[in-house]
Amino acid sequence: MNLSDFLQLNFRFAVTAQAVTIQRILSGPQRPGWSWTFESLIHFLRSQAPRGNRITAAQVRQLMEQVVLPPLGHHVTIRPAAGAPVPGQWVTAGPVDDARLALFLHGGGYVAGSLRSYRGLTTALAQACGVSLLALDYRLAPEHPFPAALEDVCDTYCWLLARNMNPEQIVLIGDSAGGGLAIAALIRLRDAGIPLPKAAVCLSPWLDLSLASPSIQANNGVDYLNPDLVAACADLYLSGLDPHTPLASPLYADLHNLPPLLIQVGSAELFCDEAREFAQHAQAANVDVTLEVWDEMIHDWHMLHWLEPQARAAIAQIGAYVQKALHQEKKAYSNHTRTTFILSSE
In whole angstroms, what separates CA 54 from the centre of its chain? Predict the structure, then answer.
């Protein structure tokens, strides 16, 4: 971002903050518990999100790359994932046990998001979970529609196993589209007979690309996402595919024999209802699923951990969940033969 863009962005935020101030004086906060700063930021993000029926990937990417990164904390190390089949970065924050790791899948509607724009969140998660975190730079639509991103995730996971990483010491973590991608990867790996990770954590996951959940409309105007933007991302990723395809929309998948799941979703976000429904399906399939609905939180509020106490609290919950999962008594695992796990292309 150049200086001119930065100044324009700050001017637009100042205008938004002034409007929020007047509105709060007249009628109070839009949602109970929203601070002035939090509400101003949500209104600003909402005003920047494109609308209409001609939204492009470039617009979505521009929106996400406007993120101003918080400074990295002490003892943070970021290094390229040398030798990985897909570009990525290893993120550590403080002393960690290298045998325990998280594979992180960023959000962005399958068309946007980058290692840079997620650096603040990946650092916070690595620190909270006490693991080495591999942030994956998977391929994006429309240049690489479904199932490219899914293939990248599964190939990287199999690469980790081929390096003799114990699946009992791996967790998948994904937010938004990355949350849906994490579930889809579990399903594909399960069906291929590949050992699954110990657990998965989904932050505001996008699980239904058909946009059928009531909260898509009910929370429009509260969340900063809008249905037009979400629909455009779905179209770009699916490229004509049926949105009910289970590996694209895991809400419609067979969920039997998946590992334990933690799902965090905000009550004020577009994806709230599909997360609730998915958790019900998972429970019916005898999956150990924990659903946390955070009151009055918007989509992916974890990204605002530098500002919002509820975001920091949610990340702390994730850290506690992951540490408990990875410190449970684990099965012996060895892949001394350096097995290469191959996924069917069918």
Answer: 25
